[in-house]
């Protein structure tokens, strides 16, 4: 297999400056060097023996496409099968604007095979919420316990709602009640979901066919009492995720008059994963972003790592969906959006749990309010191309936690504990999650053992051992539009 590598000059402290020209001096660990691109691939001159990691990135914009490198460099591009996205929609009778406990209203919901009408009974009514219980559908799991719902309502109203409004924006109020509706129904279980929302409830968006509940409604399945989804914190995290979908649709599409607009579902899912984090419930979400770093052994799926992630597959294509890579693409979108939030300045978490914006919240408000979609929004708000940002982001994923480089462009922020919820904000590729899942960063393949497959818009991390100074080359299919970087690790 032919190798590759290139070099750059570092600043006085050896931290994070990049260079080009194909010369890797190797006099400092962690110095990031942009490699040279040739007609045959990438190459660099390594002046010092040592072990290096090459970040090999494809700037091609195709979806579901894999290119060859190394011995596979001349292989034809391969299409990776994907599956159609599930349909998520709900239909309903006109809403009851104001409710008291014991009131009833009908909902038309999707149960996985058909739209059905159910009767909802109001069980909780507060200044911010109305919780309705489906009393029509047979529910073998039993209703969510009242004390659990009381805990969820308290956390949602006291923590999630004010933080969502501060960090992302105000939710709409299409029915004029000033409240968010939650329907708990086993039809959601039948559908195969934990919870969902439908943007059709907010207005006449494309594809709704006049179907709407006419209210900001979260449809919540009945959690198995023995599952991880049954605790107050878990349910609160789910509601935070779904609420963000409603806020996003209201600002991005309806307020901008873009009723026909759609984005990649993984972009919107990643934004709602970010909401779980930034509202203080970055708990179950850890498994999502961990699947985009490396959970191949746990899931028995080789795509459950950075090798299954592509910026194209979560930014481009309004109907793109992959059942096999669902977790990595959700997690990858979150990791990318979290990176953009931090690069914009992030926020400061104060001792009392309040936030002070340092640029990240303003960035998110701009994103929600901007009419641009997907990669166009990235470029408009950052002034940089998606491909340039993606290369920096992929570099940060593999450098964070190695203590080799302190450039904030190439590192995620240190995690900070939420003084209120006690969960930690942010990302750590070497985290120990729930005391049993120990992450060890993205997979790095020894160059001699590399699989030779590079996704369009994806990355491969290659370990290269340089025993003597000289030129290292890696052949890459030119259609991949390869770009590469290297840094020394020992």
Can you offer a commentary on this structure?
It is a single chain. The protein is α+β, with helices and mostly antiparallel strands and 490 residues long. Among the domains are: 23-77 and 443-488, Sandwich (Immunoglobulin-like); 84-261, Glutaredoxin (3-Layer(aba) Sandwich). The protein has helices spanning 146-167, 186-191, 232-254, 265-278, 285-291, 296-299, 311-315, 326-343, 360-369, 374-382, 386-399, and strands at residues 23-24, 33-34, 36-38, 41-46, 50-58, 65-68, 78-79, 104-110, 115-125, 129-134, 180-184, 195-196, 217-220, 347-349, 355-357, 416-417, 424-425, 432-433, 437-438, 445-446, 453-455, 459-466, 470-475, 482-488. It has a 6-stranded mixed sheet with strand order 8-9-10-11-13-12. Strands 2-24-5-22-20 form a 5-stranded mixed sheet, with helices on one face. Mean pLDDT is 90; it is low at 1-16 and 84-96.
Number of helices: 11
Write down the CATH class of the domain at 84-261.
Alpha Beta
Beta-strand percentage range: 15-25%
- Rg (CA only): 24 Å
| Residues in helices, as a percent range | 25-40%
Span between N and C termini? 22 Å
CATH topology grouping of the domain at 84-261: Glutaredoxin
Give a count of the beta strands, DSSP E runs of length 2 or more: 24
What is the typical, i.e. mean, pLDDT? 90
Task: Record the strand order, biggest sheet.
Answer: 8-9-10-11-13-12
Computed structural class: alpha+beta
> Which consecutive residue ranges, at least 5 long each, have pLDDT under 50?
1-16, 84-96
Characterize the largest beta sheet: strand count, sense, and whether it forms a barrel.
6 strands, mixed
Query: Which CATH-level-2 architecture of the domain at 84-261?
Result: 3-Layer(aba) Sandwich
User: What overall geometry do the principal axes of the alpha carbons give?
Assistant: elongated
């Amino acid at each position: 297999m032919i190798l590759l590598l290139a070099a750059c000059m570092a600043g006085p402290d050896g931290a994070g400056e990049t260079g080009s020209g194909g010369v890797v001096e190797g006099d400092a660990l962690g110095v990031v060097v942009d490699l040279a691109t040739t007609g045959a691939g990438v190459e660099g001159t390594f002046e010092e023996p040592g072990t290096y990691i090459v970040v090999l990135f494809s700037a091609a914009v195709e979806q579901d496409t894999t290119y060859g490198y190394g011995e596979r460099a001349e292989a034809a591009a391969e299409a990776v099968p994907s599956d159609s996205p599930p349909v998520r929609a709900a239909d309903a009778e006109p809403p009851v604007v104001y409710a008291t406990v014991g009131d009833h209203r009908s909902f038309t919901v999707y149960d996985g095979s058909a739209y059905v009408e159910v009767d909802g009974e109001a069980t909780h009514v507060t200044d911010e919420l109305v919780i309705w219980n489906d009393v029509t559908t047979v529910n073998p799991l039993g209703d969510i316990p009242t004390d659990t719902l009381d805990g969820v309502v308290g956390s949602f109203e006291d923590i999630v709602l004010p933080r969502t409004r501060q960090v992302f924006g105000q939710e709409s109020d299409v029915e004029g009640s000033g409240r968010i509706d939650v329907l708990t129904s086993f039809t959601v279980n039948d559908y195969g979901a934990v919870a969902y929302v439908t943007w059709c409830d907010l207005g006449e968006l494309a594809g709704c066919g006049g179907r709407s509940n006419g209210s900001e409604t979260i449809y919540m399945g009945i959690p198995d009492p023995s599952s991880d989804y049954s605790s107050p914190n878990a349910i609160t995290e789910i509601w935070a995720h779904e609420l963000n979908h409603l806020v996003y649709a209201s600002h991005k599409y309806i307020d901008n008059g873009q009723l026909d607009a759609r984005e990649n579902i993984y972009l919107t899912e990643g934004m709602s994963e970010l909401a779980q984090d930034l509202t203080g419930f970055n708990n179950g979400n850890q498994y999502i972003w961990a699947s985009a770093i490396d959970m191949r052994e746990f899931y028995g799926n080789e795509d459950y790592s950075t090798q299954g992630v592509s910026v194209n597959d979560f930014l481009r294509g309004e109907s793109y969906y992959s059942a096999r890579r669902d977790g990595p693409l959700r997690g990858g979108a979150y990791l990318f959006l979290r990176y953009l939030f931090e690069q914009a300045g992030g926020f400061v978490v104060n001792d009392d749990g309040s936030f002070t914006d340092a640029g990240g919240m303003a960035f998110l408000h701009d994103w929600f309010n901007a009419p641009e979609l997907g990669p166009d929004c990235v470029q408009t708000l950052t002034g940089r191309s998606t491909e340039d940002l993606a290369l920096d982001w992929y570099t940060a994923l593999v450098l964070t936690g190695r203590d080799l480089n302190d450039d904030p462009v190439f590192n995620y922020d240190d995690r900070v504990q939420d003084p209120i919820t006690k969960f930690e904000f942010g990302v750590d590729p070497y985290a120990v999650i729930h005391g049993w899942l120990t992450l060890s960063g993205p997979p790095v393949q020894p160059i001699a053992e590399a699989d030779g497959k590079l996704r369009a818009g994806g990355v491969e991390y290659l370990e290269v051992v340089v025993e003597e100074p000289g030129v290292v080359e890696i052949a890459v299919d030119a259609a991949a539009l390869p770009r590469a970087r290297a840094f020394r690790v020992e």
